[in-house]
Amino acid sequence: MKSFFFTFCMLLTSVFVGKIVNAQAFIDVETGALFTGYNDVRISGDQGTLFSLKDEVQSETTAFIRIRANYTLKSRHTFSLLYAPLKTIGAGTVGEDVVYNGETFMANTTLNSTYKFNSYRLTYRYKIVDRPKLEFGLGFTAKIRDASIAISSPNLNTVKTNVGFVPIINFRLFYKHNEKLGLVFEGDALAAPQGRAEDIQLAATYKFNDNFDFRLGYRILEGGADNDEVYNFSLFHYAALGITYTFNNNN
Fold first, then answer.
1. Which of 14, 116, 121, 249 has its C-alpha lying 20 to 30 A from 158's C-alpha?
2. What is the pLDDT of residues 6-30, one digit of tens each?
3. How far apart are CA 73 and CA 25, in angstroms?
């Protein structure tokens, strides 16, 4: 999956080198601090023990990175590929026996957790509004999640993995205050009976020059699923700094 992302980046670079008219390529990197808001787990979903990877097995604040490759055609059609890994590590105790993934961890035993939720997303978005100070686009994201929750004690360990496909609505609203400053509100979000997913950012933007744009803002990642196999609902807060590099098309 990672190799597919970097292959896509190379294709975008090839587009730039080929100087296709009315096309623009971008590479975006976002980093900062990741905080757990809540992370409630029960596996299996109908017979396991409900416990928290925030309040009981406490997850550490950690750094994160997200990488996106974008290709915009004729200023309105944007295609992008996002690689967004997420991993938190925690430790703590639960005051009752924990039945997790078919194993039983005794009460008040020190538990260690590794929570992984890597996301790979292919997005198409169409810019509906394109005015000097306001832009709005709406589209579709095909998301593949690569998730796992590992729990261990001094004498026992087990891991639950899950890989799946999720279709999501994508949107982007951009307000341009002047030539340098702006405000962007964008993300992916969808709710269904099987669960929900939201990945939304609000950020201030600064255009440094024709190649570099910076943004500083807050991102929220929330959602989960409730079924016989898995119960997991989580909320993560991101303090985020983003850098976008634009490949200039001189045609």
1. 121
2. 554 555 444 444 445 568 899 999 9
3. 9
Q: Is 226 exposed, middle or buried (0-12, 13-18, 19+ CB in 10 A)?
A: middle
Q: What percent of the chain has pLDDT over 70?
A: 90
Sequence-separated (6 or more) residues with CB below 8 Å from residue 17: none
- Which among 105, 118, 123 has a CA at the least distance from the CA of 169? 123
Task: Say if 91 falls within a structural domain.
Answer: yes
pLDDT at 154 over 70: yes
Q: Report whether 163 contacts 144 (CB < 8 A).
A: yes
pLDDT of residue 1: 53
Q: What pLDDT does residue 153 have?
A: 95
Q: How many domains does the chain have?
A: 1
Cβ pair 30, 242 in contact under 8 A: yes
Q: Could you tell me if residue 51 is inside a domain?
A: yes
Residue 9 host element (H or E):
helix 2-18
Task: State the amino acid at position 210 in one-letter form.
Answer: D
Q: For residues 232 and 189, what is the distance between their CA atoms, to the nearest angstrom?
A: 17
Tell me the two tokens of residue 194.
């099987």
How many angstroms separate the CA atoms of 48 and 101, rounded?
7
Structure tokens at 10: 């190379």
Q: Are 237 and 34 in contact (CB under 8 A)?
A: yes
Q: Say whether pLDDT at 169 is over 70.
A: yes
Q: Identity (one letter) of the amino acid at 226?
A: D
Q: Is residue 235 a part of any domain in this protein?
A: yes
Residue-range definition of the domain harbouring residue 213 = 35-247
- At 193 the pLDDT is 79
Task: Provide the pLDDT for residue 81.
Answer: 97
Q: Residue 237: which of 64, 113, 117 has the closest Cα?
A: 64
Q: Given the structure tokens 């990877």, which residue do they identify?
A: 53
